[in-house]
């Protein structure tokens, strides 16, 4: 096993060692490729190999007469090295090039080191970026671009850096300028529409809760819906304030606005989880569970738990200005959000938190759909529910449980622009879907209402009790 491991490790590492005199009068040129490794430059070579240009300044600053130049080409896929925890970008050909001259650390060069990475025509929506590995970044190290200038070309990219270390070329997924501006316009308009229908939904729920005498379970459901829609309203309002005020506010004000936006997003996710828990209690724990001040306790969780998360994130200074850039590294928009230095906070509190909620809610959605179909198959509710209403109830539950937010996990990559449009539009229409769903489900109060979720729950309770 040790021999096999040593063989696989050496297979991903190729090194060239040169002894160069301190009195060198010309620059040192070396070629490298992922397959052949580094070698001395052959002027007649016209392949797809990259090039390394070491300036004379490096050798003139060294004290010894002869120094060793070590150039190492690593295949990080085979070695399992140089990987960030939250890395989204792809390393070109899984290749990292390390350069060491002598035994001292070289930085602050006036005449930079130049690495030319050869590649094919890059796909649209990808931005090449010259980076180096910084072991002090985060807990396990990460890529940085400070001190490096990127000159992108059609079939080669030149990296000019003022120091020596391990370098690579990252392929970052990025939006073009027109797509990014169109998405911001769609998101802004969608937020306005969503806020309007959120107000309509809250007013409708309050009206039917006061106008008609529903059983306690339905009244709790309506209270849950009001809180969920209220969190959506606050989230859209925070986004509009964020996009309108960010870039023109003080640093502390931007941090507060970023924390407010994060709080509203976590509230939305938490109330989505509570909707799923309520459906679980109704359709799985069907014999009924009485909890004193149940809705008040849910409000304490739905509005209180995000306060703890945002408070901890604020203490470590996670909030500030966040810039959205296009493929030309031009800043398209400024947002007050979690800063780039604390992206791990975003991945844990947003992506990880919602991922768990989404998995749980999809299981609950499957159980609810299965029970609804089984009751219809037995003829218990057949004749009272129309097919279009069944489909609408299912679609409403799908939105209510936050399924549209799952599209955010597909927005990373070079082909994510269509998914971004779909994600923006569907989340903008989420308030409309919930409003229509509640109107059809709870109003008017006729015999057809007996085919709603409340009737299915009552019938399921009766059947289980008799069994």
TrEMBL record:
Give the molecular function GO annotations.
G protein-coupled receptor activity
The portions of this protein that span the membrane are 182-208, 220-240, 260-283, 295-316, 347-369, 390-414, 420-443
Query: Domain GAIN-B spans what residues?
Result: 30-177
Gene3D superfamilies on file: 2.60.220.50, Rhodopsin 7-helix transmembrane proteins
Topology in the membrane? Multi-pass membrane protein
One GO term of the cellular component aspect? plasma membrane
UniProt-listed Pfam families: 7tm_2, GPS
Keyword set, alphabetical order = Cell membrane, Disulfide bond, G-protein coupled receptor, Glycoprotein, Membrane, Receptor, Signal, Transducer, Transmembrane, Transmembrane helix
Asked if the keyword Disulfide bond belongs to this entry, the reply reads yes
Out of the domains of life, which is the source? Answer: Eukaryota
Residues of the G-protein coupled receptors family 2 profile domain: 187-442
Location of this chain's protein in the cell: Cell membrane
For the biological process aspect of GO, one term held by this record is: cell surface receptor signaling pathway
Keyword Amino-acid biosynthesis appears in the UniProt entry:
no
> PANTHER family under this entry?
ADHESION G PROTEIN-COUPLED RECEPTOR G3, ADHESION G-PROTEIN COUPLED RECEPTOR
- Identify this protein by name: AGRG3 protein
Q: Which organism is it from?
A: Lanius ludovicianus
The top of its lineage is:
Eukaryota, Metazoa, Chordata, Craniata, Vertebrata
